[in-house]
Amino acid sequence: MRRLAVRPAPKRLIPMLVILVAVVAAFAAAPRVYSNQLLLFNTIVYLVLAQGLNIIYGFTGYLPFGYVGFFGAGAYGFSLAVLHWHTPPLAALALGTLVAIILALILTPLLRLSGAYFAVANLAASEAVLQIVSNPNLTDFTKGPYGISLEKIYNPTLSYGAAVVTLAFTLAIVVYLKSSRFGLALQAIREDPISAGMAGVNVVRGRVLAWLMSALVAGLIGGIFAWYVSVFYPETVFDLSVSIFAIVFALFGGTATLVGPILGVLILYGIYNVIGISTPAYFQLIYGLLIVLLILFLPNGIVSLIDRGTRRVP
Amino acid sequence: MSREGSSGAGRPPILAVEHLVKRFGGFRALDGVGFTLNAGEILGLVGPNGSGKTTCINVISGIYRPDGGRVLLDGHAAGGLPSHRLVRLGVNRTFQVPKPFLAFTVRENVEIAVAYGRDPHADPREFIAFAGLGDVVERQAATLNSAQQKMLDLARALSTRPRLLLVDELAAGLNPSELEVVAEKLISLTHLGIALVVVEHLLGFIDRIAHRVVVMNAGRDIFHGGLGEASRDPQVIEVFLGG
Fold it and tell me: Do A201 and B62 touch (CB under 8 A)?
């Protein structure tokens, strides 16, 4: 008998690696043939965030509505390191990511909550960080509500490259979770934490590691976002709609898969950019209808069209 | 029965429960229960509903922390350890209401426990076949019937290579021929040196497999010995039939 889930045979790993390489190569090459680099960049940001959300929600079942808090923490960690200590961008990215991870560590007690309680508590935590960062009394340190300006290190080419590398890294984490015994253990925790414990899985450690991994990628792409746009306000990087978009994209495509969140971002963020900006009313109508239809007919996302409930989708 | 005294021979019993207390608010679900169990022995844990049998198993398997008393595995304190640590020490269990990973296939349910259990090189097929699930290996656990899900619980528990297996009402809902098959399977485990605590309402099933019984009432052990003696014990009769 094959032991695919525990020791992945190439049969299951290869399609995922092909998808990973294809997506990363497409975004690496796209700026040469498509002039709207900002749109490409934002798509990468949402791909990373949707996959980061997939790590924590898809694999362990925790839905963090305040997920954008890690993105903002990374953006501010990066920016403040650059502003105050003139840290070179790559080192500042490491610091920004560290700030997001520290925030995640501070929030680990939230993992004791479940369902809506966790979602709401996490949302409140993200709002609290926003209020601290944008507090006018902290203007000397955080620039308060006046926002960040990093024109001295502005470098769209290099920061775009960093975003592509982060995309590759994030997709690699999901491929690992899809093909390793650790990823199966996380899904076991999602299915039934008591049974997972009786299967020998360290439930607390698994949840915390998934939580930190998802915070890590959000913090990293948050720092890169700050680098790329170089001028932003606290509300930009702690915007609740960033969380909502990442959640909707991941759910629309299908969580606990590699392709689901990718399809979700490409389809929904595509629609958003085609009609969302020019005719927002139509966009919201179509968006709303899509989400209602999805929840009614495809609660496991569009990947469930390919393979219903067998968890065999890459 | 004949094995009962063997703990005195120097080696500590595989499981010793001493004065175990578990409170839920003001209610003492366990109120000083105690018993011991040796390798290869089957202990029947019987008693009326609410007497604390399942709570006792939940404490021994790390799902609840004890509020008093001790759980000793091979003489070492193990009360309050998390489940995955107890699994490493050789404890596992089945659930009264089976708890498989519903989205996983039968094979994946067992593979995960093999991978994180005491023998990562074990062959999952061994446990699936033992549990009689060879025909449904690639089926999703959610599609199994309740008897199959119970057997999947058993397969998952065994795939971590336990030395102490806690069986919570595995027999309930099985027909007589299935009961006999399960009885033989459980007895065969004792030949591997596995010790079993079996919680069961079907006294015929207990009589078939258990070497001795502990009768529980209101969180305490009120009788230790053979099931036949238990049925003549005035206190046990009072608890089961009313005074």
Answer: no
As assigned by CATH, the class of the B4-90+162-241 domain is alpha beta
Chain B positions touching A188 (Cβ under 8 A) are 101, 104, 112
Q: Which residue of A has its CA nearest to B125?
A: A1
Q: Radius of gyration (Cα) for chain B, nearest Å?
A: 17
Spell B200-228 as b/e; 16+ CB within 10 A means b. Answer: bebbebbebbbbbbbbbbbbbbbbbebbe
B94-139 confidence digits (pLDDT tens) = 999 999 999 999 999 999 999 999 999 999 999 999 999 999 999 9
Cβ–Cβ gap A184/B117 under 8 Å? no
pTM: 0.90
pLDDT tens digit sequence for A9-50: 456 799 999 999 999 999 999 999 999 999 999 999 999 999
In degrees and rounded to multiples of 5, residue B23 shows phi and psi of: -110, 140
User: How far apart (Å, rounded) are the C-alpha atoms in residues B190 and A5?
Assistant: 31
Could you tell me if A309 lies within 8 Å of chain B, comparing CB atoms? yes
Q: What is the mean pLDDT of residues B146-164?
A: 96
Query: Among candidates A23, A19, A153, which has minimal Cα distance to A82?
Result: A153
Can you tell me the ipTM of this complex?
0.92
Please provide the average confidence, as pLDDT, over all residues in chain A.
Answer: 91
Q: What tokens were used for A98?
A: 């560290």
CB-defined contacts A:B, below 8 A: 94
Chosen from B83, B119, B121 to mutate, greatest number of chain A CBs within 10 A: B83
pLDDT digits (tens, 9 = 90+) for A191-227: 999 999 999 999 999 999 999 999 999 999 999 999 9
* SS3 label, residue B215: strand
| Segments in chain B forming alpha helices (H) | 53-60, 83-88, 106-116, 124-130, 146-158, 176-190, 203-209, 227-230, 234-241
Paired sense of beta strands B76-77 and B68-73, if any? antiparallel
End-to-end Cα, chain B, rounded Å: 29
